[in-house]
Design a protein that fits this description.
heterotrimer, A alpha+beta, B alpha/beta, C mainly alpha, A: alpha+beta, ABC transporter involved in vitamin B12 uptake, BtuC, 2 domains, four-stranded antiparallel β-sheet, 11 strands, 12% strand, B: alpha/beta, 10 strands, binds magnesium ion
Chain lengths: 415, 279, 465
C-alpha cells in the first residue's frame, strides 16, 4: 500500500481533479439542455471552444491596447477576460437556441439532433475562417480566429504553491560551466529535488531563470561547495547573481490547478444553489419535468429555456477560459483536439446520467480519473496513448449496465 | 380461404366452448396470479385468467384499473413480477414480446400503434412476417423460397384486407386512414401473425354505434373463420355484455369479479366500482 | 404449419425467376461499371473521372448508412469507422500481397489482373471485418435508443481511430516484409499515426461503380422485401414491431452488419483510390459528412441519397471552380415546367401556385449561388475555403425548411406515379389525402422520423415480382 500512494499517484490525482472540473463545467451545459429539451446539444462543445478563443483574443487585445507586458499580467485581467468570454458565449448560445432550435421544438428529436450537428459544424468551421477583411486585424487579434494554432499569454504566473525556500543569497561562480557556489550552508534531503531561481538584471527588468540542481550531495552542504546545475553557463556570468534555493515538493500543487478547481467549484456551487434554491431554478426543474405542465402553471417556458442555454454557455465559457491557462497552446477551432475534449465532457454527462446536474459533476471527475489513472498506470502493460479508448469503453460499459447513466433515472415508455 | 388455418388452430377442439363456465379444463391462455408494481403503485396484482380455445372473454374495469397493464404483462412488454402465464400449454412468461407473438398471441393497442408511414398493405404484410423465414441473401438474389414466401405474404395480406374491407386503400399510408379504419387495420395486422389468441385493447373506442355493431360482427366472424380466441378490453358495456362469454372485472389492479355477463352485471362490487356507470 | 408456410410451399416457383433476377443483378453491376469505365469516364476526362470515383465511394457509404439511419430509424454517427476498417483491410491486403510478391506490378491497362483479384479479395475481407465490427456495434442497439445509441456509435468510431493509431509502422521494404516472422504481423503493420500509404491504384471507375451498383440494388431489393419491412417497422414503432413478432435484436444487428459490410466495401475502394488511409478517416467528422448526405437526400430514400451524394459532390466541385449557374437554373426551370404541366393530381390553380413556388425556390437558389460567387470574387477568397460552413448552413436550412430531405422516404421512380395517380384517388376520398413529398405545393413539415405523406411504396411500383 505504501507505494500505491506515491508522488505519481498524487500528481495524477491533481491532474484528474483539475481536468475533471473542466469536464464537469462543460458537462453541466450538456446535461441542463438535455434535461429540459431532451436532445443532445452537439454545438455545446463548440461554445466551449468559442470561449477559449474569445479568452485568447480578449487577453491579447487587452495586452496590446493597454501596453501591459505579456509576462506578468495584472490579477484583474483574468476576471475581465472571463466576463467577456461569458458574454460572447452566452449571446451565441441564445442566438443558437432562438434561431436554430426553437423553430424545431415540436419536431422529432432526430431533426433537432441533426440541426445541432449542423450548428456545431458551422461554429467550428466559421470560427476558423481567415479573419474577415473589414474586421479588426492585427498581428494577434482577429475574428474569425483563423486556421492557425496560437499560444495563450500567461494570465497566471506558474507558481508552485507548496514549495519551500530553504536559502536565499548571492551566487559565487564555480570553476566549471554549470557549477555554482552557494554563500551559505543548506541541508539537502535524500530523494528530493531542488531548484535554483536566479535573478538577472536586464534592460527590460529582472528576469528569473530556473535551474534544477543535478544530484546535489545529500546532508549538510557547506557554503562554497560546488553544486551542478543544468545550463552550462560560464561561471563568470553566474557570479554575483541573487538566488533562491527552493525545495521542490514531491507532489507539486500549482496555482493554475488551484485556480481552475476553485473557479469551477465556485461556479458549480453557484449553479446548484441557483437550480435547487431559487424560484428560477424551480422553474427550470418544472420545465424539465414537463414543458406543457410548466407552461400551464404560468412558467415562461421560452425564457427558462433561453436562460438554460445561456447558463450552460457561461459555464462552458468559464471552462474555455480556464483550459488555456493550464494548456496554453490553442489549437484552431475545428481541430480534433477540441472535438475530442468536448466529446469527453459529453461522455461525462452521459456517464453521470444525462439530465442530472450532480451526475454531470460526478461524470466529469470520473472520466478525468479514468483518463489520467488509466494512462499513468496501464500504459506500461497495455500501451500508451489509449486514454480515449478507456473513456469510450467506460461509456459503453456504463450505458450497457445502466442505460440511463450512473445517476440518471430510466424512463419507461408507456404502452 | 382459410380452411387450413382453421384446421390448424382448432383441429382437436371444437370452437365455442360452453359459455358460462367460470373455469375451463383445457385453457388456451392461463394466467395464474400475475402482478406488477411500478414504484409503489400495484398496477396489477394476483390476476388469474383462463381463456378457452376460441373463447371470447372480456376484461373490464374503470379507468386506471390495470387492464392495459395486464395486456402488457401477457404480451411480454413488461415482465410479470409474480405468477405464471401459459399459452396452449407452454410457459410464456419471461419470453420476449416477439417470442410471445410467435407462440401465438397478438394484440392491438389502446393508443393505436400502426406503422403510420407504411402503406396499409405493408402494415398487414409486416404482421405475416413472424410466420416466415427471412434472409438478407435471399433478398439480394430473390431465391425461389424468397419469391414464394413474398407471394404468400402478399396473398395473405390482401385476403385479410378483404375481410376488413380495406383492400381499396391498400396503398395509402396507414396514418391517412380514418380512426375507425385504423383500429380495424390494427386488428388485421394482428391477425396476420396467425395468433391463437387475440388481445384487443378497446377496439371500439372512438367508433359510432353503427361501427361498433359492425365491429361486434367482425369479432364473431374472426372466431368462426380463424378459430382465434379473443380477450377484449372494452369500456362499452353494451358491446361487452353482448358478445363476451366470460368477463373478468379489474379494479385497482385486483380482480373483483369473474363470471358470465349476467352474473357480472348484477354484482354489487362491480356496480360500486363503476360508481353509477351502467354496469 | 402456418398459413404462410403452406402458401409458400404450394406456390413455389421454379428457379427461372431467380435466375432472371440474379442475371439482372449481375448485368446491372457489370453494366454500370462498364458504362462508367468506357463511356462516361473517357467522355468526362481524367480529373472529372477522379471526382466521379470519389463521389461513387461516398455514395456507397451513404447509401449503406441509410439502412441503419433511414430504414431502421437508428441514429448511427460512427459510420466512418466501418469505412476505415474496410479501407485499412482492403489497402493492406493488396499492398502486402504486392510486396510479398504474390501478384505482379500494377498494370494500368488491365481491369482483371491477378492484382485485381487480390484487391477484390481484400475488399471482401474489408467488408467482412467491417461487418463483424457492425455486429459488435449493433448488439448494444437493443438496449439503447436514439441519442444513446448515437453516442455509442460515435464512441465506436473514436475507438477505431485510436486503435489504428496504435498499429505498427508500415513495412515498405518488400525484403523486410518477406522476412517478417508471423509474430511480426501483430499488432498489424498498418502505419500507426502516420496512416497507411502507397496503396496500389486498383480503384478504377469500373470497380467502384460496380460496387455502387451492387450496394444500390441490394438496398433497393431490401427496402421492398420482408426483411426491409421489418427494418421500416422498427423505425415506425419499436413497440408495435416487437408485438408483431419482429425480433428487434436480430433486425437491428442485421441492419448494422449489412450497412457496415457495405461501408467496408466502399472503404476498400477508398483505399485504392486515395492510395492512403489515415486513422482520422474513422473519426466523426467523416461520419458527419455521410450523415449530411443521408439527411439531405431523405432518410430512407435510396435515390434521394444518391442525388444528394452526387449533388454535394458537384457542389464541392463548383465551389472549387465557381461558374455561372444561369444555364443550370434555366434547365431546372424547364424541367419543373414540364413536370407541372403534365401532372394530373392538382387543378390549374394549384398548378399555378406550385409553379410560382418552384420559380421562387429556383430564383432564390440562383441568386444565392450567383451572390456567393460575386462576393467571393469581390473579397478575393476561394469559396472552397468556406465549403464546410456552407454545408453546415445548408444542413440547418434543410432541417428548418424541409426536414424530410429532398425526397422524404419516397423514391425518384415513384414520384411520376404519385403525380399521375393522385387526383383519381383524391376524388374517391377527398378529405383524407395527404400531400406527397414530391408535391411542392404542400410539403408537410413533418419530421425525419415520420416523413412526408407520400406512400413509401406504391403497390405495383416496387418492381415486384
Ligand atoms: N409504465 C408505467 N409506469 C408507471 N405507472 C404505470 C405504467 N403503466 C401503467 N401505469 C399505471 O398503472 C395503472 C393502470 O394503468 P392501465 O393503463 O393498465 O389502466 P387501464 O385499466 O388500461 O385504464 P384505461 O381504461 O384508462 O385504459 C395506472 O395508474 C397507470 O398510471
Ligand atoms: Mg388501458
Amino acid at each position: 500500500m505504501g507505494t500505491l500512494f506515491d508522488a505519481t499517484f498524487f500528481d495524477t490525482m491533481i491532474a484528474s481533479v483539475a481536468v475533471g472540473s473542466l469536464y464537469a463545467l462543460i458537462a453541466l451545459g450538456y446535461t441542463m439542455v438535455y434535461g429540459i429539451l431532451k436532445f443532445i446539444n452537439f454545438a455545446h462543445s463548440d461554445v466551449f471552444v468559442l470561449g477559449a478563443w474569445t479568452a485568447f483574443t480578449t487577453t491579447t487585445a487587452l495586452i496590446a491596447w493597454t501596453g501591459l507586458s505579456a509576462a506578468g499580467a495584472p490579477w484583474w485581467l483574468g476576471p475581465i477576460v472571463l466576463g467577456v468570454a461569458m458574454v460572447v458565449c452566452g449571446v451565441t448560445a441564445f442566438c443558437i437556441e432562438r434561431f436554430a432550435y426553437r423553430p424545431l421544438r415540436k419536431a422529432p428529436r432526430l431533426n433537432v439532433l441533426i440541426t445541432a450537428i449542423g450548428v456545431s459544424l458551422l461554429l467550428q468551421n466559421f470560427n476558423q475562417l481567415p479573419p474577415a477583411p473589414g474586421l479588426a486585424r492585427t498581428a494577434t487579434v482577429s475574428f474569425p480566429f483563423g486556421p492557425t494554432p496560437k499560444t495563450m499569454p500567461e494570465l497566471l504566473p506558474d507558481v508552485i504553491l507548496n514549495e519551500s525556500i530553504i536559502a536565499t543569497g548571492t551566487l559565487g561562480g564555480g570553476e566549471r560551466r554549470g557549477q555554482v557556489l552557494l554563500d551559505r550552508a543548506v541541508t539537502v534531503l535524500p530523494g528530493r529535488t531542488y531548484r535554483l531561481d536566479v535573478t538577472r538584471q536586464t534592460e527590460a527588468g529582472p528576469v528569473v531563470a530556473r535551474f534544477n540542481l543535478n544530484n546535489p550531495p545529500v546532508g549538510e552542504v557547506q557554503a562554497g561547495t560546488p553544486l551542478v546545475t543544468q545550463p552550462l553557463r560560464p561561471p563568470a556570468e553566474m557570479q554575483g547573481l541573487a538566488y533562491v534555493l527552493v525545495q521542490v515538493p514531491a507532489v507539486t500543487i500549482r496555482l493554475v490547478d488551484v485556480a481552475i478547481v476553485g473557479t469551477a467549484a465556485v461556479l458549480m456551487v453557484g449553479l446548484l444553489w441557483l437550480v435547487f434554491r431559487t424560484r428560477l431554478g424551480a422553474a427550470m426543474r418544472a420545465v424539465s419535468f414537463s414543458i406543457e405542465n410548466a407552461a400551464l402553471m404560468g412558467v415562461n417556458v421560452n425564457f427558462v429555456i433561453s436562460f438554460t442555454f445561456v447558463l450552460g454557455a457561461c459555464l462552458a465559457a468559464a471552462a474555455g477560459f480556464l483550459y488555456p491557462i493550464k494548456y496554453p497552446s490553442l489549437q484552431q477551432p475545428a481541430s480534433d483536439v477540441w472535438v475530442l475534449l468536448g466529446l469527453k465532457a459529453f461522455v461525462a454527462a452521459v456517464v453521470g446520467g444525462i439530465g442530472n446536474i450532480r451526475g454531470a459533476v460526478l461524470g466529469g471527475f470520473l472520466i478525468a480519473f479514468i483518463e489520467f489513472f488509466g494512462e499513468t498506470y496501464l500504459s506500461a502493460t497495455i500501451g500508451s496513448g489509449l486514454q480515449d479508448i478507456y473513456v469510450f469503453t467506460t461509456l459503453i460499459l456504463v450505458l450497457l449496465l445502466r442505460p440511463a447513466g450512473l445517476l440518471g433515472t430510466p424512463v419507461r415508455e408507456k404502452v | 380461404m382459410s380452411d387450413h388455418t382453421q384446421a390448424n388452430h382448432t383441429a382437436d377442439h371444437a370452437p365455442g366452448p360452453q359459455p358460462g363456465a367460470t373455469d375451463v379444463a383445457r385453457a388456451l391462455l392461463r394466467a395464474e396470479g400475475i402482478g406488477i408494481s411500478f414504484g409503489g403503485l400495484k398496477a396489477v396484482q394476483g390476476l388469474s385468467l383462463a381463456v378457452p380455445p376460441g373463447g371470447l372473454d372480456g376484461l373490464i374495469g374503470p379507468n386506471g384499473a390495470g387492464k392495459t397493464t395486464a395486456f402488457n404483462l401477457l404480451t411480454g412488454v413488461y415482465r410479470a413480477q409474480t405468477g405464471s402465464i401459459t399459452l396452449d400449454g407452454r410457459r410464456i412468461d419471461g419470453l420476449r414480446p416477439h417470442q410471445i407473438a410467435k407462440a401465438g398471441m397478438a394484440r392491438t393497442f389502446q393508443n393505436i400503434r400502426l406503422f403510420g408511414n407504411l402503406s396499409v398493405l405493408d402494415n398487414v404484410r409486416l404482421g405475416a412476417h413472424v410466420r416466415g423465414r427471412h434472409t438478407l441473401v435471399g433478398t439480394l438474389f430473390r431465391t425461389p423460397a424468397y419469391i414464394a414466401q413474398e407471394r404468400a405474404i402478399l396473398a395473405r395480406a390482401r385476403q385479410l384486407l378483404g375481410v376488413f374491407n380495406l383492400l381499396s386503400r391498400a396503398d395509402e399510408p396507414a396514418k391517412s386512414l380514418p380512426y375507425g379504419d385504423q383500429r380495424r387495420l390494427e386488428i388485421a395486422r394482428a391477425l396476420a401473425t396467425e395468433p391463437k389468441l387475440l388481445l384487443l385493447d378497446e377496439p371500439a373506442a372512438g367508433m359510432n354505434p353503427q361501427e361498433k355493431r359492425d365491429l361486434a360482427r367482425t369479432i364473431q366472424r374472426l372466431r368462426r373463420e380463424f378459430g382465434v380466441g379473443v380477450l377484449l378490453i372494452e369500456h362499452d358495456m353494451g358491446l361487452v355484455m353482448d358478445i363476451c362469454e366470460r368477463i373478468t372485472v379489474l379494479d385497482h389492479g385486483e380482480v373483483i369479479c369473474h363470471g358470465v355477463p349476467a352474473h357480472v352485471q348484477n354484482d354489487p362490487k362491480v356496480i360500486e366500482a363503476y360508481l353509477g356507470e351502467p354496469g | 404449419m402456418s398459413a404462410i408456410h403452406e402458401l409458400t410451399q404450394k406456390n413455389r416457383p421454379g428457379v427461372g425467376l431467380t435466375v432472371a433476377h440474379t442475371a439482372a443483378l449481375v448485368g446491372l453491376v457489370l453494366g454500370t461499371g462498364a458504362v462508367m469505365q468506357w463511356v462516361v469516364g473517357p467522355a468526362a476526362g481524367i480529373y472529372p473521372a477522379t471526382i466521379l470515383r470519389q463521389i461513387g465511394i461516398v455514395a456507397i457509404a451513404a447509401v449503406s448508412l441509410n439502412i441503419v439511419n433511414g430504414y431502421t430509424g437508428q441514429f448511427s454517427i460512427g459510420h466512418a469507422g466501418f469505412v476505415a476498417i474496410g479501407a485499412y483491410a482492403g489497402g493492406a491486403v493488396s499492398f502486402y500481397a504486392n510486396s510479398l510478391g504474390w501478384v505482379g506490378a500494377y498494370d494500368p491497362a488491365g481491369l482483371l489482373t491477378p492484382g485485381h483479384a487480390v484487391m477484390l479479395a481484400g475488399a471482401a475481407i474489408g467488408a467482412g471485418a467491417a461487418g463483424a465490427a457492425g455486429y459488435m456495434v449493433g448488439l448494444p442497439s437493443l438496449r439503447l435508443r436514439g441519442d444513446y445509441l448515437a453516442i455509442v456509435t460515435l464512441g465506436f468510431g473514436e475507438i477505431v481511430r485510436v486503435l489504428f493509431q496504435q498499429t505498427q509502422s508500415q513495412v515498405f521494404d518488400p525484403q523486410a516484409a518477406r522476412a517478417l516472422p508471423i509474430s511480426g504481423w501483430w499488432p498489424p503493420p498498418l502505419g500507426g499515426a502516420q496512416g497507411f500509404s502507397s496503396v496500389i491504384p486498383y480503384g478504377e471507375l469500373f470497380w467502384i461503380y460496380a460496387a455502387l451498383a451492387l450496394t444500390v440494388v441490394w438496398c433497393y431489393r431490401l427496402k421492398f422485401s420482408s426483411s426491409g419491412r421489418a427494418f421500416l417497422s422498427i423505425r415506425e414503432d419499436e413497440i408495435a414491431a416487437r408485438a408483431m413478432g419482429v425480433n428487434l435484436t436480430r433486425y437491428k444487428v442485421r441492419a448494422f452488419v449489412l450497412a457496415a459490410a457495405l461501408a467496408g466495401l466502399g472503404g476498400a475502394f477508398y483505399a485504392h483510390l486515395n492510395l492512403a488511409v489515415q486513422p482520422k478517416d474513422a473519426g466523426f467528422q467523416k461520419s458527419f459528412e455521410l450523415i449530411i448526405i443521408v439527411v439531405l437526400g431523405g432518410l430512407g430514400s435510396i435515390s434521394g441519397v444518391l442525388l444528394a451524394a452526387f449533388g454535394l459532390g458537384g457542389l464541392t466541385e463548383w465551389l472549387r471552380q465557381p461558374t455561372s449557374v444561369w444555364p443550370a437554373a434555366l434547365v431546372a426551370l424547364a424541367l419543373v415546367g414540364v413536370v407541372q404541366a403534365v401532372r394530373r393530381d392538382i387543378d390549374s390553380r394549384a398548378r399555378g401556385r406550385a409553379m410560382g413556388r418552384a420559380l421562387l425556390v429556383i430564383g432564390v437558389l440562383t441568386g444565392l449561388f450567383e451572390g456567393l460567387r460575386a462576393f467571393a470574387a469581390w473579397q478575393g477568397f476561394k469559396l472552397d475555403d468556406i465549403r464546410i460552413v456552407l454545408y453546415a448552413l445548408a444542413l440547418i436550412s434543410v432541417m428548418l425548411l424541409r426536414p424530410q430531405g429532398l425526397l422524404g422516404t419516397s423514391e425518384l421512380w415513384l414520384v411520376p406515379g404519385q403525380l399521375m395517380r393522385r387526383k383519381a384517388k383524391a376524388a374517391a376520398a377527398p378529405s383524407l389525402r395527404t400531400a406527397g413529398p414530391a408535391d411542392p405545393a404542400a410539403a408537410p413539415a413533418t419530421g425525419v422520423g415520420g416523413m412526408g405523406g407520400g406512400v413509401t411504396e406504391a403497390g405495383g411500383d416496387e418492381g415486384w415480382p
